[in-house]
Amino acid sequence: MTVSNAAWVNWSKLESARPERVEEPADTAAIVAAVERARAEGSTVKMVGTGHSFTAISAPEHTMLRPSRLGGILSVDRDAMTVTALAGTQLKVLNAELERMGLSLHNMGDIAEQTLAGATSTGTHGTGGIAASLSAQICGLQLVTGTGEVVTATEAENADVLEFGRVGLGALGVLTTLTFRVEPLFVLEANETPMSWDEALDGFDQRVADHHHVDTYWFPHTDRMLTKTNDRLDIPVSEAEPLSRLRYWWDDEFLSNKLFGGLNRVTNRFPGTIRRFNQVSSRMLSARSYSDAAHKVFTAPRTVRFREMEYAVPREAGLAALREARAAIDASDLNITFPVEIRVTPSDDIPLSTSTGRDSLYLAFHTHVDADHLEYFKLLEPIMRAHDGRPHWGKVHTRSAADLAPAYPRFAEFLTLRDRLDPDRVFANRYLRRVLGD
């Protein structure tokens, strides 16, 4: 279905585009038709998601495809413990449907607004576990290539397309379906504990070893940190003890979103108040414990808009990189309201995953949408690069193909597959030309 022209703007309002044609395909055949037309015209086509990438990775230049009619679960195989869904399905929809069926993904990040295609194509990840990223849980996919061919990829059929397409950056084709390995629905218990900087870092490695998932936050201009550990409980969901509706509203909706957003708007106007604001607010943190179905513990509402840079550094270099980042922030005259997030992941075998071939520690730096992010990220990116960091594909960075290629042992193989699947660069845009070359 063709709709009227419309501008595209991502969630952080950092990237925008005005495509010449906008369509809402209802099936794979309509995607094939759009790709074949673009190829014949010598133009480009991009399927967009919900815009939660901070980069222009999905920015359309000519034809924009919207996934609004391409959502839902297609099949469930309880013997193989797999679920196949349309690639335009939002993660929050998949999570709710899986819970209804008594199933769950193994791990995920902390928001659930993205489409499955967008989240996996950029390497969206959580922390800890056996598999940290959504992509590492994929065991099958289908995509439309740049020549209009529909390719089904499994471990037994077109295995190379599966191997590379799990984090394909939208450069190999338009994903139409994704098959995930799933598990029986399980309960997570979350424990959130305020700590000092020294206490959190001194016990970091042991904490990671002792718990299934660990997420840590440092509040710039303070000595305060917050740690969150998530551990599996061998109980049915009916016996979980979630936050009360009032506590959830107060903590996660009012304090973490409405009040935090309002205070950011004020401190953006009066940046001299930020350091004092952080000192006071970080000391107001209190411990809390709760348990619930896994996806309700992994994810949380995020209504305050921000901009983000995140780097994966080798696990053994992670805390040194964090300490250097703090020293740089402390020595600068920058005023930062958002906490720095610290997560760890096991290595995986996905060629363009930021965790490929190595255990990793991720450092995520944020600013409010109306604050200047450029100087902050410019200060810290060289530190991340000095520690052999790899930037998250969907978050702000300045890297290009020339310096990304050495960071990924199989980068050249990815480019070769891209040449085969999209020889005319039907899926190219400004971002992909920068990070992959042309």
Overview of the molecule:
The chain has 438 residues and is an alpha+beta fold. The chain contains 14 helices and 21 strands. The strands form five sheets. It has an eight-stranded antiparallel β-sheet with strand order 17-14-16-15-19-20-18-21. A five-stranded antiparallel β-sheet has the order 7-8-12-10-11. α10 packs antiparallel against α11.
| Helical residue percent band | 25-40%
The whole-number mean of residue pLDDT values reads 95
Strand content: 15-25%
Extended strand count: 21
N-to-C terminal Cα separation, in Å?
31 Å
Radius of gyration, whole Å: 21 Å
The dominant shape is: globular
Judged by helices, strands and strand pairing, the structural class is alpha+beta
Give a quick account of the main beta sheet: strands, pairing sense, barrel closure.
Answer: 8 strands, antiparallel
Q: Supply the number of helical segments.
A: 14
Strand ordering within the main sheet? 17-14-16-15-19-20-18-21
Q: Which ranges are low-confidence, i.e. pLDDT below 50, for 5 or more consecutive residues? A: none
Question: What's the quick description here?
Answer:
This protein is an alpha+beta fold. Helices cover 32% and strands 24% of the residues.
SSE topology sketch:
Elements: E1 2-3, E2 8-9, E3 16-17, E4 21-23, H1 28-41, E5 45-47, E6 63-65, E7 73-77, E8 82-86, H2 91-100, E9 103-104, H3 116-121, E10 138-144, E11 150-154, H4 159-165, E12 174-181, E13 183-184, E14 187-196, H5 197-202, H6 204-210, E15 213-218, E16 224-233, H7 245-269, H8 274-282, E17 288-293, H9 294-298, E18 306-314, H10 318-331, E19 340-345, E20 360-368, H11 374-386, E21 390-391, H12 401-404, H13 411-421, H14 430-436
Parallel strand pairs: 4-6, 5-6
Antiparallel strand pairs: 1-4, 2-3, 7-8, 8-12, 9-13, 10-11, 10-12, 14-16, 14-17, 15-16, 15-19, 18-20, 18-21, 19-20
Helix pairs in contact: 10-11
